[in-house]
Structure formats: structure tokens, C-alpha cells
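Quick entry between incubations.
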Amino acid sequence: MADSYYDPKDLRKFGNITEWSEELGSKFFDYYSKVFEEGALSAREKSLIALAVAHVVKCPYCIDAYTKDGLQRGITKEEMMEAVHAGAAIESGATLVHGVQMMNKYNKLSM
Amino acid sequence: MATKSLKAQQSELSSANKQLEVLNNGIFADGELPYFKDKIAEIGHFPLRPTKLEILQINVGYMCNQVCAHCHVDAGPDRKEIMTKETMAQCLEVIKNTGAHTLDLTGGAPEMNPNFRWFVEEASRAGVKDFIVRSNLTIIRANKKYYDLPEFFKKHNVHVVSSMPHYTRGKTDKQRGDGVFDKSIKALQELNTVGYGIPDSDLRLDLVYNPSGAYLPGDQIALEQDFKKALREDFNIEFHNLFAITNLPISRFLDYLLASENYEDYMYALVEAYNPAAVANVMCTNTISVSWDGWLYDCDFNQMLDLKVASKIKHIKDYNEEVLTDRNIIISQHCYGCTAGAGSSCQGTVA
Ligand code: SF4
Ligand code: SF4
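Done. Structure below.
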């Protein structure tokens, strides 16, 4: 057993999840690859969305994977960083909008 | 960025044997990843055999005005291996009689060979259908004596294939050196001015793209569209096609992979992207590569690994196409670079 929770090499083994549940695993990977095909959004745009979400869900595997994917597609570092900021802005906005709830509660409880 | 070749630095990795030792051991010898030989045996392609000779690729010398970080030739200003006029004359005899439809001159910077112009003039008379010169672009701006190269290429109806790692300055200069981007842009504009690369023009100008790092090239068509759009909008530059080429793990690129601790991941990525459909069309099945000193190889990569053809004909002076075509191609783990994804060759994807 590894003595840390995350090992970069584990990403190579992602496909192995299918071994313990063939049907669900395969369905997931089919769905996954379909999602990232060219569609109404370009594969390039989806790669940047994935990168932003990878940061928001703080998945180190996805960050590695979509940084590399971006490089392969010729996406520049400025574009990548703006995508990360888009994710971060939504995430901090989601925190801050709860400030309204705090204000409501405060007002309700105060005389 | 290094300004000397591995050879001039007396690096251990400048030796072909050392490179082959890396490629044949480690994760492959451990059984973590399969040998290329076993992989192609699965689909009945071992031993790998040539089909029909279509491309004669001649390396006229390893001297170059640049020292790109990824260079598989380990080229640079300090390399003294230059094809002599005598060897060129032997090549011309072959060019006149070959069944190949394409002649492909490469280097280093082929233009730096002192007999380059004589060789192009002579070779262009032989009537080969497609006559390619691989020009790194900056050479055209490196010195006054090269300023007229676009006109010279045009006069001999040369098909220019040029390397351009990215359409942004930062990425280009990081891979190829400071100032390379601006010089390349200027050279492309000059090629356009004499008619190269213009849509419908017979003066062919194609670009080669290699990733500037430890990752594989993305989709060739998507990259071509991005390059076209950016170069047109920002610099008014036109070109015909973009060839996306995978960096093979040899020479300076191998040195970079090892030094940056990317070697294993990169080999995993190549093996994972292995595409059986690319095997039948790998470059060595239709190409012969000639070195500056006249030796014959399955491809430019095997030339750098000093793996001469496994044929009783090994030198241009004894050239015999029929005998040469009846040979087994020498392979090693670097070959995974040719079969990854859509495949990779000097003419771009193959699958
Ligand atoms: S990649 Fe081409 S331009 Fe760069 S050093 Fe090698 S031969 Fe010269
Ligand atoms: S590296 Fe050379 S020998 Fe190996 S597959 Fe590619 S072209 Fe053929």
C-alpha cells in the first residue's frame, strides 16, 4: 500500500475501475469520452471547462490530465489561467452569495 | 537554453549506445511496458518490412544555426559532420535512377552545407516529383548570404517544409531560442512575398509542429486551423498544411525527458496511445535515410541511433533499391513515437 492518499501514477490505472464493475465502469468511460467529443462546444472549449472544474473540485489527477490535454491542443498558459480564475470566481461567488443568508438571519434575529 | 550540442558537451547521452541502453532497459526490461517488437508482433507486423520506396531522405549535415531543446539530430553550430561534394555526387546518381517520387533534404540546417546550392540545382534537374527542403526558417534571416533563399527555392521549384512550434512568441522561443519567433515570422512573410504558401499556389509551404515539452501533439487538423487563424490574423501569413510530429525519445529530447523526470510518463503516454492502424504506414516502410557520410538507414531516427540498415547494401555508393527493399527494419522502443495516436512521420500523421 502507498503511504500517501494521492500517487500521480494512479492516474494511469484509472481504467482499472472497470475490473470491479464492468458494466458501470464501461458505461462511465463511454459517457466520458462522448462528452469530450466535438459538439455544439468545441473539444478545445470543453478542455478548458474541464480544467476549471478540476480546480474547483480540487482533483489533482484531473488537473494533471487537463493541463496536459491543454498543452496538446496548443492552449496557452494565459488561457489556462483565465479558466482557473473563472472556476475560482464562481467558487468564491458561491461562498459570498451565502453572505445574503447570513445577513437575512442576522436581521431576523436582531431587534 | 543550451548553446552547445550534447556531443560538444561530451554528454554521455550523445552516444547512440547509451540511448539504446535507456530505451531497452528500465520500464521495458521490468515488464511494466511491452517491447515495441511484441506489440507489433500481436498484429503480425514483426519483423517490420518496407513496402515500396517512395521517399529518399538525405541528411546533408548536422550543422545548424540553432540548438533546439528537442532536436533529435543533436544539431548545432558546433557540429562538423557535413556531406562532401563527392557523397553528394553519389546521391545524385541514385536520385537520377530512383523509383522514389519524393526527395527530402534535411539536416541540421541543410542550407549551411557549402555545396547545398549546387546540390539543389543538380537534383532539381533529375525530375523527382516532389522536392522537399526542410528549412528551419531562421536560417533565411541568419546572414545576408541567405536572404535570397526564398527566390532560390522558387527558382528550383522546391517544396519548403519549415518548423514552427507555436504561433505565440513565448512557446516558440522557449523551444528554439530567443528571437526565433520574430525571425521565423519575417522569413514566412518573405516566403509568402515570392508566392510560397498562398492558397492555390504551386509553391508549397508546409509547417511542422512539434510539442514543446513532454506531451503528444493534439489533433493535426485542429492545430492547423488554430495556426492558420492566428498567423493570418496577427501577421498576415499564409501556408498550406501543418504536419504535427511527435517528439521521439532520442538524443536531446531524451536528455530533456530524463533530466526533467518525465521519461517514464512520456513512455507510458506513447504506449497508451499506440495505434495498431499506424504500424503499416510508419515512415520506414517507404523511406530510406542517407546520412552525411553516405550510410543508409531505415529513418532519420535510426540514423541518429547509428542503426544502419540490415541489408548487405549499407552505403549510397553501392545503392540497389531492389536489394534494399528486401530487408527487416530495425526497431526499438523509440518507434512507439511513430505509432502514437494518429501516427507520426516527417509528412505528419499516417493513420
Ligand atoms: S530541430 Fe532543426 S532547427 Fe532545431 S537544432 Fe535541430 S536541426 Fe536545427
Ligand atoms: S523510428 Fe524509424 S524505424 Fe522506428 S517505426 Fe519510426 S520510422 Fe520506423
